[in-house]
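Query structure, 396 tokens:
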């Protein structure tokens, strides 16, 4: 099929959705599909780069406790129509389809089969509350809906009720398995790793407080902090004013170095405070065979299993976080057991496995539309055959 992956965030700027789109693009191509990525530009990027098609300009703005993107163009309608006429997609797969404005314009003008994947999770959302009243027409144009987790499904279903297929995010298992630990940190001191944007919802201040408690107890350890963001100055000031030793701020790192750091770590900690729909960093830690201490929040419960790959603690609770870290520091065999369990579980989230599920869902939606005589006029590919199912199985 000819497939367009639509991302409202400027591709390939790093981020969870763009990472998802990248690996889905690569693996759909490996499965024989002709794939393009529709996104916006930011700065001096060219309008088209190989299979990446750029429409409009992306601008950063606060969103869900982080930073999102809104895309604008004075000629959106004509630009989008030109791309759709030239590419003639059989299927368009929208990631966060209701983020203004690229996805909305493409969805409105699409004559293809339309699939939406919903990645976000939050509490009460004024934007979604408003959107639920104004975007129902757009929602009705989606022929199929995917949520990356039960938490994401619960969140979006409150505002746009419907049938959602839960298909998780994936991880490049091989990249983390093959990574070589960094010799610089292999000196006998246990390494505790944090990876994330330095903003409130990622919870670094709670980890710094917990690490201080761990150090005050006499335990040895080194905290490696990967990422940047608005809380960096505050975090550095906390470390300096408390005289907290063995904290290293590494800033942003390459994908290759990030994989090495996960392999170097003895413990990975994710003290997120909430509003996480999934937890890709947990997948990355498991793929590297690294045991986890993380917050007991909705988005994480579908990724790790309590006591098997991770110790789960209440969010914003520095004492509980410190206790979880200390328990793993004190029990090397527990670390080995949980790391092995994580590596085993990570196989279920390989991109090959996840892409196969997405492709199967495409087929299910297309067959359903064909049976109802409702295939859009832009769909020109063959209808995928139904898979061979056991008597107790059914599609959907």
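Result returned for the query:
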């Amino acid at each position: 099929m000819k497939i367009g992956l639509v991302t409202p965030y400027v591709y390939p700027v790093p981020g969870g959705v763009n990472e998802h789109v990248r690996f889905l693009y690569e693996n759909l191509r490996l499965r024989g599909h002709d794939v393009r990525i529709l996104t916006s530009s930011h700065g001096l990027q060219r309008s088209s780069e190989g299979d990446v098609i750029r429409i409009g300009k992306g601008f950063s703005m606060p969103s869900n406790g982080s930073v999102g993107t809104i895309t604008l163009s004075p000629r959106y309608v004509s630009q989008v129509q030109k791309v759709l006429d030239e590419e003639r997609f059989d299927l368009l797969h929208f990631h966060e389809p209701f983020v203004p404005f690229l996805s909305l314009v493409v969805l409105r003008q699409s004559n293809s089969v339309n699939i939406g994947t919903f990645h976000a999770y939050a509490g009460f959302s004024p934007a979604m509350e408003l959107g639920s009243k104004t975007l129902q027409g757009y929602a009705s144009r989606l022929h199929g809906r995917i949520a990356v987790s039960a938490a994401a499904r619960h969140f979006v279903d409150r505002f746009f009720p419907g049938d959602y297929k839960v298909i998780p995010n994936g991880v490049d298992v091989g990249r983390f398995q093959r990574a070589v630990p960094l010799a610089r940190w292999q000196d006998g001191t246990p390494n505790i790793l944090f990876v994330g944007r330095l903003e409130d919802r990622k919870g670094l201040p709670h980890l710094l407080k917990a690490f201080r408690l761990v150090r005050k107890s006499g335990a040895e350890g080194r905290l490696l902090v990967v990422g940047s963001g608005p809380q960096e100055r505050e975090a550095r000031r906390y470390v300096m004013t408390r005289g907290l030793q063995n904290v290293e701020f590494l800033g942003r790192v390459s994908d290759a170095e990030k994989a090495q750091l996960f392999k170097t770590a003895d413990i990975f900690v994710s003290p997120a405070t909430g509003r996480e729909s999934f937890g890709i960093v947990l997948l990355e830690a498991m793929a590297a065979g690294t045991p986890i201490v993380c917050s007991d929040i909705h988005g994480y419960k579908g990724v790790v299993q309590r006591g098997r790959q991770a110790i789960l603690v209440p969010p914003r609770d520095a004492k509980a976080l410190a206790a979880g870290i200390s328990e793993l520091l004190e029990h090397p065999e527990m670390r080995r057991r949980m790391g092995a369990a994580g590596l085993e579980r990570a196989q279920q989230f390989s991109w090959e496995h996840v892409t196969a599920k997405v492709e199967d869902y495409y087929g299910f939606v297309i067959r359903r539309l064909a049976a109802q005589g409702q295939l859009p006029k832009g769909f020109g590919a063959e209808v995928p055959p139904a898979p061979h199912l056991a008597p107790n199985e059914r599609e959907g």
